[in-house]
Records
---
Amino acid sequence: MCDQRRRVGDIEGLDSSDDVDVDVDEDNGLLSISTLNGSALYRDILKATKEFDAMFCIGKGGSGSVYKVKLPSLENVAVKRLHSTFEVTHHKSFMNEVRALTKIKHRNIVKLYGFCSNAQHSFLVYECMERGSLSSILRNEVESKKLDWLKRVNIIKVVAFALSYMHQDCSPPIVHRDISSSNVLLDSEFEARVSDFGIAKLLKPDSSNCTAFAGTYGDVAPELAYTMKVTEMCDVYSFGVLALEILKGKHPGEYITVLANLSTRDHVQLCDLLDERLPHPENEVKEVLIFIIKLAISCLLETPKSRPTMHFISHMLSMDPLVSQITSMKAKSLPEM
């Protein structure tokens, strides 16, 4: 019997790579794009989850369910099983984009190991982050108190660095399209990484940037109400909302509109924008939080061109001496005031 598996170099229109395999197993109808052996990865995940038994599910989202899986070849991984309605409609562009995402290696970005799909299952495989999403921690009364001001400032810096990298250093630039607390994951030490970069576009492929926006309600830029053109400035707006959410401990809601309006901004007090579950900040920490709030407000400006770039924001956060001072301190809870 002839081997029906085709490597990426045999598929017209796909780029080849030494470290990423794109395999088509025609006998089993399996498409895989992975830094690992795709067919083996598919089999191992089905075996480890007992074909996606609910007991292994650790969360659900708009595009699918997430499972925690222990593989023979890796430590724990997170597997996002896509909804049954998912379909690869532009095979070549989809595979090339997934390949590009699997090749990204950045300390502030969750590693994507690959993608597997056949008639029964389609899923993405990521490195596993022990503490899960930032959104779930902020909603938890006990866990949220472990996120002191130092940790929260560091998370904001990390997200800014990750977005700047995707916008500035990737060619072509990658727009996240759904930057929110649900897509910021934390490890055991509360170090943050951004997940699902570019996945929103992959799940709703289009030949241009004018496509259905898959962002989180309340976090998306206002211009998307009248245009579906997604740009880096949409990520900037969402970053501003996220930064305020991290400091407040919950979504800023109506404060977004108030802060974006110069005539109403002065009516907002600092205490209105900070998490009441934490001790009130003082001295250098207070100054840093005010600095970050001002940066976040600049991201919320209605006109996209008026917003700063993520490169500028990350530069400001890395160059400000007070931000550098407090984020270099050993992360520990602030004393009670």
Note: Confidence is low (pLDDT under 50) at residues 1-18, 330-337.
---
Amino acid sequence: CVHAIGDRANRETLDIFEAAFKSHPDARDLRWRVEHAQHIHAADIPRFAQLGVIASMQGIHCTSDAPYVTARLGPQRAEEGAYVWRKLIDSGALVTNGTDVPVEEIDPIASFHASVTRKLKDGSTFYPAQRMTRLEALRSYTINAAQAAFEEKDKGSLRRGKLADLTILSKDILTIPDNEIPSTEVLYTIVGGKVMYERTPAPPPAPRRSPARP
């Protein structure tokens, strides 16, 4: 894993990987990844798939950084290479997702919402053509992340024989309207088949009492 954010850092990282793979073809099997891959030169976007390098990205970075990205990169560079999930996925690259805590809040629901809407707090959207579909965003958090860690045989999907690690949400995030995603809550977290977290419902409001009369 190599940490790279800007287009120069991503290009130099891909160049290093490419040179290493030519000298040591078996090195491809190690599932190399670039952490963040936030801004990529247009010419380097297809290289992720060509080299088999995983783009380990964080959906929430797009919406939290958007207010100043265009000012720093300019609109053309921002549109061509900033948080280009759609281009990476369509080119065949494996994209994973996360929250990058403690830089961001540890809230996967917020990052999922950013991944599928790219909507900012002011209601605007940051180059929405690069959004993930709901299923792609879910996979980026589950089976894709497991594959990046060589754990796809044990985690990442609900199948017989895999670890019973799962999260139960209050809403179906694949079908609800976009504006309902942020209010989705975690009801249960199950690890190894055991309930490790259960949301405690708020107590009902106390009954109103009439004021005492003299």
Note: The mean pLDDT is 94.
---
Amino acid sequence: MRTARLLSCSSIAALATLVVPALCIANANAAEQIVRHRNPAHMTEPWAREFAEVIEIPANAQLLVLSGVGPTVANASAPPDTAASYGDTATQTRSVLGQIERILQDRGYRMGDIVSMQALIVADPATGKPDFTGFSSAYKQYFGTDKQPNVPVRTRAEVLRLVPPGWLVEVTVMASRVPSRRAR
């Protein structure tokens, strides 16, 4: 026959002093994390996997906001201030994202810390249309990969022109991270 052991009130109180704070700490740690919500599964377009629907950033997170970043010259032998000197949309996007990666690294951030991106894209002079596919091909080398699975919320927009002639792409990002408990 089994006998049940009853805990005394003092034993329950002692147990509660151990369990309740542990639960509070676990919940506090969960609340301190950046939470990324991917787009719903019913969005079946390939581009829908390239960005998050919503990202929640807790109050204790650090935030880094970058100004717009444009491409560097890719072909010095091309006429200056032309799309030919900076390259096509994919080339310019790789240049821009590479620069953003260096800026973030200089400040202790990673590409996976980017939570928001706005990309301004000018029509390619060769086609008269913005090359969103070229942008995405370069973008997917940095986001949503096995090595770096995070994706930001993102807006891509066609604009008539960017201030420097020849630029087809300019990108602004915000990066966020939660400081580690050890660093505090």
Note: The chain has a mean pLDDT of 85.
